[in-house]
Amino acid sequence: MTINEGSAAPGRCLVLAWITWSLGALFYFHAFFQRVAPGVMVGELMQDLDLSAAALGNLSALYFWGYGVAQLPTGLLADRWGPRRVLSSAALICGFGGLLFAFAESSVTASLGRLIVGFGAGFGFITTLKIITVWFPPRRFALLSGLTLMVGTVGGIAGQAPLAWAVEGFGWRGAMTGTAAFVLLLGCAVWFSVRDHPDAAGSQEIDETPHLFRDIGQLLRQSQTWIIAAAGFASVGSLFAFGALWGVPYLMEVRDFSRPAAAASMSMMLFGWALGAPLIGWISDHLARRKIPFAISATGAFISIFLLLYIPDLSLWMIDALLFINGACSAGLVVAFALVRENSKAHIAGSAMAFLNIGVISSGAILQPLIGWLLDLNWDGGFEAGRRLYSPEAYENALWVLPACAGLAVVLTLFVREPRKSG
Prior knowledge:
This protein is mainly α. Helices cover 75% and strands 2% of the residues.
C-alpha cells in the first residue's frame, strides 16, 4: 500500500475534522454491527431460508471472506481515491448487499448479499485510519484509533440485544432493511460532508508499489509472522464464532435463555473487548513487554471459555462474568499487532499487520461453518417451529473447537519472540 504523510488540520478546520472522523467511525460501527448480526436471527434464517446449521455457518462466514478480500486494496484505494470516494462507494456496496440479503428468498441470494456486505464493510477501518492520519496531528493517532475501535465495538453491542428487540418487533427482514437504509444514508452524508484533506493541495504520496512483491516475499519468510498470525487466529475464535453467531442459540437451547436475554448476555463479550483492548495495550506499553501480556490474556480466554461451556448450572451473573472475561482477554489481540510490527523490518511492518488482520478475520470465516457442520453431524432429527433443534449434547460435541483453539493460542504464545525494543 502507499503511505500518506498527512498534515494536522488547522484550527479553523477542527470541526470538519471531527465530522469527517465521526462519519468514518460510524461506518466502522455498521461494519461491526453486520459482523455479529446473524447471531440473533439464527432461528428465523434457518426457517425462512431452509438452512441447516452448517449452511447457516457458511452464510454468516461469507461476511468474513468478503471482509478479508477487501483488506488487500483498501490502503491503495484510500491513498489514490481519498476517503470520501472510498467510504461513500463502500456504503453503497453495503447498502446494496444489505437489501439483497433482506429480500432474499433463497440461501444463494442471501449468501451473495452477505458476501457483498462483508466486502463493503472491509473498507471501513483502514480508511478511517487514513482520515485520522490526514486530518489530525500524529500525537492524536493512538487515541483516535482506540476511539474508532470502541465505536466499532458499540456497533457490535447494537447487533446483540437492540437488534434482537428489533427482530422481535419488525422481523429479521424489516430489521435488515432498516440497517441497509442507515448505511445508504450514511454514504450520502459522507459524499456531501467528507473532504479528503484539510489542504486543497492534498498530501504527498510515497509509493512503495514497485517493491510490493519483494516485500511480500520477505514477509512470508519470517517465521514470527506466521506464529503470531496463527496465535491471533486462535485467540479470537470464541469472539468471532461464539460471540458473533453460535452464542445466542447456545444460551437459548442449553442455558434456557430467552432471545433478548441471550443477546444481552452475549453483549458482555463485546463490553469486555471494548474495555480490555485499551487496558491490555496500556499494560503492555507500561511494562515494555509484549509476550507476557499476550500469553496471560490468551490463558484467561482459554480458562473462561472452558468454564462457560463445561460447568453446569452456572448462574446468570457467572455466565455474564465469564463472557465479559473472555471478551476482555480476547482483546489481548492488540498486543499481537504490536508484536508483528516490532518483529518486522520497518518497510514491511504495515504489510505484516495486514497479514495478521487477514489471519484474524479468517477465524470467523473458518470456525463459524465448522461448528455448524459439527452441530449437523450431532443432530438427532428434532424440529421446532420449522427449524432444526439441536440438543445440549450436540452443542457440547460441536463447541469443543473453541477451548481447543484457545488452548492452541496459549501454546503458540510460548513460541513468540519478545522484540528487542517494545513500544
